[in-house]
Design brief:
Neuraminidase, about 40% strand, mainly beta, four-stranded antiparallel β-sheet, about 140 residues
Length: about 140
Amino acid sequence: TIISNIGCCGLTMDNDGLLYVVDFDKHEVRRYRIGEHEGTVVAGGNGEGNHCDQLNNPTYVFVDQDHSVYVSDENNYRVMKWMKDAKQGIVVAGGKNKGNGPTQLSNPYGIFVDQSGSVYVADYANDRITRWRQGSL
């Protein structure tokens, strides 16, 4: 066991070998160096909620080459981007209530960001994959 007492849902590792772990129970994402047990909050960390410094049941995480952290925020029906050292995130997909419209998500899970900054989202409850071009919101 390298990390314990965490409601882990999703995780990823960046090119520098830092581990990013979604804590579903604490509504946050933490970054860990190998051998570290506490980690550093890089997204959320301010309890459950829908403000730009909060998450509500985060599920998956993606980290780009600039160390920006993307989080699928299941119960807020959005994907948030937290730039390195940011105290708040910005909505890059969804966030317009639950639904199946072109600007809505319903239970966003898996996420991927390509070289151009487009965000791909596994929109579970809508049985689809969506693409959100950078700056489309």
